[in-house]
Amino acid sequence: xxxxxxxxxxxxxxxPSASSRALRAGVTGGFLTLAVTGATVPANAAEKPVAETxxxxxxxxxxxxxxxxxxxxxxxxxxxxxxxxxxxxxxxKAAKAAEKHKAEAVKKAKAEAKKKAEEARKAKEAAQARAxxxxxxxxxxxxxxxxxxxxxxxxxxxxxxQLGKAYVLGSSGPSSYDCSGLTQAAFSQIGIDLPRVSQDxxxxxxxxxxxxxxxxxxxxxxxxxxxYHVGVYVxxxxxIGAQNSSTGIVERPLNYDMPTGAVxxx
Length: 266
Prior knowledge:
Elements: H1 18-29, H2 43-53, H3 55-141, H4 151-161, E1 166-167, E2 176-177, H5 179-188, H6 198-201, E3 206-208, E4 218-221, E5 229-235, E6 238-244, E7 248-253, E8 261-264
Parallel strand pairs: 1-2
Antiparallel strand pairs: 3-8, 4-5, 4-8, 5-6, 6-7
């Protein structure tokens, strides 16, 4: 034994270092500070802080996952809003374009209808003008009351063939005629039987005015029923008749010897 073994030491007791105090404070508080090195830590004191401090990463991960999901949801909502806005804008533009196209189509249709109506009007007017000109040409070229057609042509042809023959009172042809004998013979050519004398011939058929004569009308001088002379209107303001013994059968204008009246038997 050393002679100094029983001599009391005059050293002051070693005070715990700051690291040891911090370690003990950390164990007492329920967590372990791993930054402290070189300190002796009881096993039962180190286990508890490790178990307790492992919960923090779990909570942090859940919060981070929740925050990430919230961010994704917000981003998706924002995307949906943006997409809907784009769709609404596209629909609005399409609707406006369709409305504009419709308005243009209606305007074009009205213009076409107006154009067709104008063309139809012009075509109608042109057709009416052509019809009017055609009617005028037909009026000029068609037989008037002064031109013989059909049976009247046969009648006029017979009368003209007798021009120059003698007038003989009471004669009925064929080489000579008196006035009523000539008209009776002429109308017999077309199947019409007339009375023999002028008085009776002046009451046949229908009385007509001298301003409305037609080819084949029988002209008479004197009054109807007591006429003393007859002839036949052959058109162009002329008549043919057996006038008298000095002239024989002749063609004369109406104003040569204006008749009193006329009858129509055709």
